[in-house]
Amino acid sequence: MKCWLRKCCLLFCTWGPAATAQAREVPEFAALVEKQAPVVVNISATRQTKVPKAPFLRSERDDGIPGWLQRMLPAPPDMLDEEEDDRATGSGFVIGVEGYILTNAHVVEGASEILVRFNDRREYPGRLVGADRRTDVALLKVDARNLRQARLGDPARLRVGDWVLAIGSPFGFESSVTAGIVSAKGRSLPDESLVPFIQTDVAINPGNSGGPLFNLSGEVIGINSQIYSRTGGFMGLSFAIPIDVAMDVQAQLRQNGRVRRGRIGVLVQEVTRDMADSFGLAQPIGALVSQIDAGGPAAAAGIKSGDIIVRFDGKEVKSSSDLPRIVGGVRPGMQTVVQYWRAARLQTAQLAVAEFAEESSLVPVRQTEPSLRGANALGLIVQDLSRDERHTTSGVAIREVLGAAGRAELRQGDVVVALVLHGAPSDIRSATHFNRMVNDLPRGSAVTLLVRRGDAQSFVAMKVPGK
Q1: Any catalytic annotation for residue 106?
Q2: Which of helix, strand or coil describes residue 235?
């Protein structure tokens, strides 16, 4: 989640008709959750990151240099870094029976593998259709059909003070429900001028990112995206991307794999009360043009530094933060009308919106299985047991855990005793035997391992990753 459990209990004791009337006004959340929980998914994104090896973990160099001197010399390139799997969790929700899922871009950015898990425990690999960093919206696709999809609401009808509810996976606790009210609408956050955020006091924590924000009709009206915090935890301020903004972005991602935005070539600033008085405006509204691109559309339309843009494309510009959002929503190449305040009177001009030049909206995600460096299809590097170990158990010892095996919480030192496929257990005779059986499994097939750890043993279910 982008940005930076105290327990409390309140006891209310009231009597009389007034208390009964108030009790009837308390929202009924349980029925809403029962109906809408199936559309919410848990998203696990695996990234491969480089981490430095600690000096005392570096192997001794076979070059005759004493150990005390080795520590003073630069390490060889093969000792500098090693790769580790970094797993992030978030939430999302189904918007199409064909398997389309909305989430936040920061949940899946840089992921080498995406796993989507439904509340009925079904799991599917997720394919990234596209993502847009500037609005923090990503569109995923899973190969599943006849899915329950979310009903979408109209954020414009949302009122400050309305009850709202979030379903997600904070800290990995799947299908967690929190509720609160709308605190404000149309919030602009630093460096986030393209999204008119819905501010709520719904408890949102890491893992909730990308999950839906529902109104009391069970309609999704936003995507939970950010919190404001000085501690890293929830402090009563959470922000959601309005669903109409997200749906416009996903439509472009689905069609083009990227988002095209308009620009007019101006820098603007807020109009203060004193500025409004000096410019002859009755109210401090609009966006004051402080700088203009000489070759941009606004300059070509005759707009100058010192003009105050009060309306664009038929939409009122109440503050400077409104203008980038409104302009960005206009398709490049379209002719539109701009109204601005100059010399104490309202003036009008027509201009052709240009395209905002930005980095590709597609988050670079490797869609293939990461290199497993000699591991089998399950991501396990195994070795034969020693002669002493074979006196107490059979199977193969896990030497390294990568990829899918890491998510199954297998550890170095565990012993794989048997492999269960289609209900039939097969004893493991050697590392070669085990690797051959695993690598012959069809991609996407389910398999169960009987694993011994110390004196205990248990079954671990896994899936062979797809291509």
Answers
A1: yes
A2: coil
Q: Which two tokens stand for residue 80?
A: 């500098």
**Two structure tokens written together for 384:** 């034969």
Whether 39 has a pLDDT exceeding 90, the answer reads yes
262-355 and 380-463: identical CATH topology: yes
Domain range annotation of the chain: 1-257, 262-355, 380-463
Query: Could you tell me the CATH superfamily of domain 380-463?
Result: PDZ domain (2.30.42.10)
Q: Out of 91, 176, 209, 321, pick the active-site residue.
A: 209
Percent of the chain scoring above 90 in pLDDT: 46
Catalytic position from the list 44, 106, 321, 361: 106
Q: Please identify which of the residues 91, 112, 132, 136 carries the catalytic annotation.
A: 136
Q: How many CA atoms lie within 13 A of 279 on its CB side?
A: 26
Looking at the structure, give the CATH architecture of the domain made up of residues 1-257. Answer: Beta Barrel (2.40)
Asked if 136 is an active-site residue, the reply is: yes
| Distant-in-sequence, close-in-space partners of 5: CB < 8 Å, separation ≥ 6 | none
CB count within 10 Å of CB 23 equals 10
Residue 348: helix, strand or coil by DSSP? strand
SS3 399: strand
How do residues 359-389 score in pLDDT, each as one tens digit? 544 443 333 334 445 688 888 888 888 877 7
In this structure, whether the domain defined by 262-355 belongs to CATH 3.30.540.10 is answered with no
Is a pLDDT exceeding 70 seen at residue 191?
Answer: no
List helix spans (H) across 87-166: 105-108
DSSP 373-397: TT--TTSEEEEEPPTTGGGT--SEE
CA distances from 362 to 44, 134, 211, 260 (A): 19, 11, 20, 12
Q: Please confirm, yes or no, whether 422 is among the known catalytic residues.
A: no
Of 14-18, 309-313, 402-406, the least confident:
14-18
* pTM for the predicted model, two decimal places: 0.70
